[in-house]
Amino acid sequence: MTNVAVQVNNLVHSYADRKALRGVTFAVSRGEIFGLLGPNGGGKTTLFRILSTSFPATSGDAAIFGDDVRLHPDQVRRRIGVVFQNPSVDKKLTVRENLMHHGHIYGLRGAGLRGRMNEMMERLGVADRENAMVETLYGGLLRRVELAKGLLHRPQLLILDEPSIGLDPGARRDLWLYLERLREKEGVTILLTTHLIDEADRCDRVLILSEGVVVAMGTPDALKEEIGGDVVVITTRDPEKLQEMITTRFHVTPILLNGKLRVERENAHAFVSQAIEAFSGMIESVTLSKPTLEDVFIARTGHRFWDDAQ
User: Fold this and answer.
1) pLDDT (tens digit, 9 = 90+) per residue, 233-262?
2) Exposure pattern of 134-155 as b/e (b: 16+ CB <10 Å)?
3) Residue 217 has pLDDT above 80, yes or no
4) Of 41, 54, 19, nearest in space to 10 by CA
């Protein structure tokens, strides 16, 4: 049995005259929590929709557990659970009624379906709301119902689009505890899209998309190590002049982003002290931080994460 859960090769997708994906290639191993990180408009939701068999790509190939998503969508759907960004439950039905109808779609009936429904409601903490109309549930509970529905038929791959949307910090924490437990206890592979840096940090590996292009892929720690030092951000009234002066003095050229200077530097504390001593009259403030996945994005694209949103 192959260890690959998802294989994507040179995937391209266009909407009229706009290319949303431009030759995306990657693989997800069984049992991974794999994140697709990118700003709004970066292409991650298009990729989600293709992998969930919502529509075919313009060109390229994608397979889930060896089944081509274009040629064998029915086989793929039996092996995946999908949690969409926007609720897909029927708000005019109860929690139990939603799960029952979803089970029927997958051929589940009778005592087997009832047992599985009870198991999922209990596991996701919505058993006490089984007879509540879905339209009365708030964000966190509604998300749990979506998860229960997506997991009802025991999928091998769970695909989630922006799973933390609408959740408070406590509900986000509970969601991630459950996803990690699902992977550890049941071996479910998890693929999710997100625009949240801290959420991507919790993935085993992450793929960063910008304007439909893969700009980085790897473990969060390995990607951040590529920065090669800490990140220094300098605020000044004349950033272009200070940029030139720092380049001349320290033989490193800061990146100018949104009117501030950004420098990646080993031994950054010493650099900050020397820069303040040399240019104290020009520097208004300095921040020093460890690299983040947004810094990886900046290093690869030359602009900030949120500047890329379309």
Assistant:
1) 999 999 999 999 999 999 999 999 889 999
2) beebeebbbbbbbbbbbbbbeb
3) yes
4) 19
| Segment (H or E) for 97 | helix 95-105
CA gap 301, 303 in Å, rounded:
6
Digit-coded pLDDT (tens) for 140-195: 888 889 989 999 999 999 999 998 877 788 878 888 888 898 899 889 999 999 99
Q: Are strands 205-210 and 213-218 parallel, antiparallel or unpaired?
A: antiparallel
Query: Can you tell me whether residue 233 is helix, strand or coil?
Result: strand
- In this model, does residue 307 exceed pLDDT 80? no
Q: Are 214 and 25 in contact (CB under 8 A)?
A: yes
Tokens linked to 132: 């509540």
User: Could you report the per-residue pLDDT of 70-80, keeping only the tens digit for each?
Assistant: 999 999 999 99
Cβ proximity of 193 and 45 under 8 Å: yes
Look up the pTM and report it.
Answer: 0.87
pLDDT at residue 1, rounded to an integer: 54
Torsion sign across C-alpha atoms 194, 198, 202, 207:
positive
User: Is the Cα dihedral 112, 115, 118, 121 positive or negative?
Assistant: negative
Bridge partners of residue 7, in order along the sequence: 27, 63
